[in-house]
């Protein structure tokens, strides 16, 4: 079932988990902006902004079991790597999803330990909203799948 739901409607400070207890803390003071649905967080990669939760504090967000993740996402540049979501422990990534920084408008999903990327091509374009869905099935030996749906540049 559902583990967490972040509406990201807060103007600043912690972003509350509306369903569970996985509240997110800001790093480098990210702002908020108009989102696809309501408000959203505005992360600037040049300022190293992101939202985080301590590994010891989180529940149900690791790859020990199966999981899925979905979010509206809009990149500002197709030539800068931007992380959509990631599960890291002491600097090492357990899983991560990012856009390509080579201008190919591709999305990469990496899973430990091999980090061989699953590539979905042609899904991102600057200033275009996409809905990102990632699924991971722990029973199939770290096999993962992702699907991205490009919607429009309009709000």
Q: Give me the Rg, rounded.
A: 15 Å
Q: What about the largest sheet?
A: 4 strands, antiparallel
Query: Taking strands numbered 1, 2, ... along the chain, how are they ordered across the largest sheet?
Result: 6-7-8-9
| Order of SSEs | EEEEEEEEEEE
- The average pLDDT score comes to 77
Give a written overview of the molecule:
It contains no helices and eleven strands. It has 155 residues and is mainly beta. The strands form four sheets. A four-stranded antiparallel sheet has the order 6-7-8-9, with no helix packed on it. Strands 5-10-11 form a three-stranded antiparallel sheet, with no helix packed on it.
Name its key features:
mainly beta; three-stranded antiparallel beta sheet
């Amino acid at each position: 079932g559902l583990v967490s739901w972040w509406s990201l409607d807060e103007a600043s400070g912690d972003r509350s988990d509306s369903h569970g207890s996985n509240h997110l803390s800001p790093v480098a003071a990210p702002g908020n902006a108009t989102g696809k649905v309501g408000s959203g967080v505005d992360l600037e990669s040049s300022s190293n902004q992101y939202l985080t939760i301590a590994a010891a504090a989180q529940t149900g967000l690791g790859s020990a079991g199966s999981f899925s993740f979905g979010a509206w996402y809009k990149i500002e540049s197709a030539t800068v790597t931007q992380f959509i979501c990631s599960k890291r422990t002491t600097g090492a990534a357990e899983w991560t999803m990012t856009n390509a920084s080579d201008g190919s408008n591709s999305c990469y999903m990496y899973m430990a330990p091999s980090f061989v990327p699953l590539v979905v091509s042609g899904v991102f374009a600057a200033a275009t909203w996409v809905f990102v869905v990632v699924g991971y099935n722990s029973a199939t030996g770290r096999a993962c799948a992702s699907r991205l749906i490009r919607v429009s540049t309009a709000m």
